[in-house]
Amino acid sequence: MSLEPLITASLPVQIHAFAALAALVLGAAQLLRRKGGGAHRAMGYVWATLMLVIAISGLFIHEIHMIGPFSPIHILSLVILVTVPLGVIRARQGRIVAHRSTMLNIYWIALVGAGLFTMLPGRIMGQVLFGTH
């Protein structure tokens, strides 16, 4: 394991990776904690902000080219830019079941699911974790 591939990566990749790692840990803590209340709300706003940072920084990463400089991950970034605020709005409206569903889907699909693809051979996190090229 070596952080060198991440340290030498472009700034958008570094921002994206560190925000994703922070969101992964904070999101797991949110899943394990009691829901509702001030701590949940504060941690939720930090997590939502991290997810928006991940989505925005992802728009500046162009390592996989499928349609010009874009790949399916860019669609996911756009989806996150819509669904994270939607999840927050749902909580503020008191629509807790819809809020929970939105945030859980974002965590498991966009963060964990997409994160697993970053560990494939040739990807930066795969190089960091497994030394693969």
Automatic annotation (TrEMBL):
Pfam families: DUF2306
Keywords, sorted A to Z: Membrane, Transmembrane, Transmembrane helix
Taxonomy, superkingdom: Bacteria
Transmembrane regions: 13-32, 44-61, 73-91, 103-124
Protein known as: DUF2306 domain-containing protein
Organism: Aestuariivirga litoralis
